[in-house]
Recover the amino acids of this structure.
């Protein structure tokens, strides 16, 4: 008994050391990642003269609210609140649009019988090989001909199709037992009733996981908004930050730029924090 107890204690001790080492490594990694963000926060709380004069301060200054107020309501090229709103509308529109189209297209491919069903699915899947950069010229021409330049519809509609989301929802629908569809049919449920009452609630965690990914995808778009917006009022926050960066010998208000950069991080971080439980469950849960 003594030998067994001793061996077990040694195993617990080894596991305890390994756990302690893992936490130390995790803390170091988090500190390494967060240090630049902390420096940006410090830079957003001081005056320009304090920032350009070495050494750079490592403690927050007294101009935090002043700099953030200037960034939000005045900005450099446009008020940051307006650019944040544009990015929020674009990110939400792209995420919701992609999810709705993907849900319906995957539902049609899995549960409806029509000629060349498999061909249509693989044609959708092959669009993964044609990113926006490849088809950007004809897409721009179509958007311009429809008069959607400098508009939210022009920012959102060309990016709402998603082969990846369609593929993921198709794979999920194929795991749903056929007995559910058969039972719904016997009960007299129409296809869309089956979709809204059974499939949609079962897809909740998948939708949440995809929403987080697709919202961040839409929020970080730069090239497409840069092409179709010429009005500063339609600038997204990513465009705004790029335009704030000085070129050559230009001198810009770096505290306001740092405040803008931190404000641009908040909405994606809030989306991840609010939806993290559903996001993780949607990625790892296999019990449908």
């Amino acid at each position: 008994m003594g030998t067994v107890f001793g061996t077990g204690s040694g195993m617990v001790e080894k596991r305890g050391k390994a756990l302690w080492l893992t936490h130390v490594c995790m803390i170091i990694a988090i500190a390494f990642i967060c240090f630049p963000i902390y420096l940006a926060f410090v830079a957003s709380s001081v005056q320009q003269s304090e920032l350009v004069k070495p050494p750079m301060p490592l403690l927050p200054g007294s101009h935090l609210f002043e700099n953030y107020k200037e960034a939000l309501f005045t900005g450099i090229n446009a008020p940051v609140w307006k650019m944040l709103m544009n990015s929020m509308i674009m990110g939400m529109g792209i995420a919701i649009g992609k999810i709705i189209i993907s849900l319906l297209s995957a539902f049609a491919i899995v549960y409806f019988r029509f000629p060349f069903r498999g061909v249509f699915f693989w044609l959708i899947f092959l669009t993964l090989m044609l990113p926006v950069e490849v088809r950007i010229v004809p897409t721009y021409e179509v958007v311009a001909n429809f008069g959607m330049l400098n508009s939210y519809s022009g920012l959102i509609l060309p990016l709402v199709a998603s082969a990846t989301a369609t593929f993921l929802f198709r794979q999920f629908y194929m795991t749903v037992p056929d007995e559910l569809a058969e039972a719904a049919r016997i009960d007299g449920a129409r296809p869309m009733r089956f979709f809204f009452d059974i499939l949609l609630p079962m897809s909740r965690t998948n939708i949440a996981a995809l929403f987080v990914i697709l919202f961040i995808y839409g929020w970080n778009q730069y090239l497409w908004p840069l092409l179709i917006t010429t009005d500063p009022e339609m600038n997204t926050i990513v465009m705004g930050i790029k335009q704030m960066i000085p070129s050559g010998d230009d001198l810009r208000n770096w505290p306001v730029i740092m405040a803008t950069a931190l404000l641009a991080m908040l909405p994606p971080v809030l989306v991840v924090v609010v939806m993290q439980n559903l996001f993780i469950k949607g990625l790892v849960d296999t019990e449908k």
Observations:
- The longest helix spans residues 2-43.
